[in-house]
Amino acid sequence: MTDFTPTEMMTVAAARALGNDDVCFVGIGAPSAACNLARLTHAPDITLIYESGTIGTRPDILPLSIGDGELCDTAVTTVPVVEMFRYWLQGGRITIGFLGGAQIDRFGNLNTTVVGDYRKPKVRLPGGGGAPEIAVSCGKIFITMAQSKRGFVEAIDFFTSLGHGKGGDDRARHGVRTKGPTLLITDLAVWEPDPRSKEFTVVSLHPGVTREQVQETVGWTVRFAADIAETPAPTWEELKVLRDLKARSDEAHRGKAITA
Amino acid sequence: MAKFQTLAEALADNLGDGDTVAFEGFTHLIPSAAAHEAIRQGRRDLTLVRMTPDIIYDQMIGMGCARKVVFSYAGNPGVGLLRRLRDAVENGWPRAIEIEEHSHAAMANAYEAGAAGLPCAVFRGYIGAGLKAVNPNIRSVTCPFTGEELAAVPALNPDVGVIHAQKANRRGDVLIEGITGVQKEVVLASRRAVVTVEEVVPDFAGVHVNACVLPHWTVASIAVVPGGAHPSYAHGYYKRDNAAYLAWDEVAADRDRFRAWMEENVLAATPDIFGGRVAGLREEAKR
């Protein structure tokens, strides 16, 4: 077995959750790497959509922004942003939304808006972008983020996007019919919501990871499934494709800045 | 009727202190040269509207041009946070600014409502989202047919809309290609539209019949500024300068360094320098 980093394991595990028939709304960063890894390995026909309006895009490198030219050049079609949000997202044509965040709680509610009070923030984060509507309009939501005490918190500082709310049938009580977060892939484990309480529960530990390590990086008392699996390690092929993709992307993004 | 002007004339004629202005471009065709011109002209108390504020609003806010920002994602895309905007929000430097925050869907719908002459946009949004509690402009309406509660936000009708585009023809019609973002909506929603273009061509012969063209009578002023979207890009002309976005993160991290950079690259510069900035990126776009 080849050595791999926790981040690589996270990306590979997230990629495996995607299939050929999925229509996936892709966020930048970890989600983008996972979605493109899936496309370059077991799901060549997956439809990737970025909120800039590019539908069915097949970039050779990972874009730095959601609107890099590469995404448009390789797309089946590029539509105006208004159309993207109205016809394609709100219209219910997207099966999976892939999100990350700065803070997450046990029910998959996400915060990318502020740390601290909204009016007097300790840290002003970028904000929601497409997330508030992605979270309720896509068939289901996958979340990927690295675990840390700062990020995995008992109570998020701001509800940027709805996960399972207060748990149980809270989504339904909001009038939402989509499934919401069904999978959380971190650098240490794979989590799924409990069918009733909707609290995220560890179902699989990545190779070499202990329950203690998972608990140490989470701000609430973690629930573990009765039968915990071990996430299969990345294969040689998965790692090679991912590393080539990263290397190509880093090379393309570097260059020498003349001036901003 | 579109008037061909220098960038300095176009901005001076259309943008005044206290105006509400949208410099738009969804990662593509961002009107950077026009934003720099507004900074050089010393505009103050602007309400800056833009889905993704990114570098140009970081610069305008850091130079004290803004009174308020209306936005849906205030980040340096793919890089991180906007440090000048953060400094203004967190510390009031160089001045305190008011923020009105939305989601992308809300902003896009609000521009469309503005273009369509409607008072508000209605969409399925903000369900369970915290912004409803902090932004009084996010309200709801009940569908008169189904009873469904839907989100409503006021239409966006800026005093001035500013975009970059690939081409104008001699009459002043404007052609936008690639990721069109909200370029068309913001021009139609704004009272006055200023467009910077890469070049002027005699006519649009050979352009696809369904191409995104803004007729000349929808635009107030056109200025030719090759490279005017840098470090964003113009599809078919030059690539995005990703390295510049990465470098901006360092420039913006420090107030003095930021001021020095703005002094050298904006205040002491002219729109002509944008052509040189994209020379290498033009070559890359041909590959």
Fold and architecture overview:
The complex is a heterodimer of chains A (260) and B (287). In chain A, 28% of the residues lie in helices and 22% in strands. Chain A starts with 5 loop residues before the first helix and ends in a 7-residue tail after the last helix. Chain A has one domain: Glutaconate Coenzyme A-transferase (3-Layer(aba) Sandwich), CATH 3.40.1080. Chain A is globular. The longest helix of chain A has 18 residues. Chain B is α/β, with parallel strands linked by helices and 287 residues long. Chain B has two domains: 230 residues, Glutaconate Coenzyme A-transferase (3-Layer(aba) Sandwich); 51 residues, no CATH class. Chain B has eleven helices and 15 strands. In chain B, the strands form three sheets. In chain B, strands 1, 2, 3, 4, 7, 11, 12, 13, 14 and 15 form a ten-stranded mixed sheet that branches. Chain B has a three-stranded antiparallel sheet with strand order 8-10-9, with helices on one face. The longest helix of chain B is centred in the C-terminal third of the chain and has 13 residues. Chain B is globular, with a radius of gyration of 19 Å. At the A-B interface, helix 3, helix 4, strand 9 and helix 5 of A face helix 4, helix 5 and helix 8 of B.
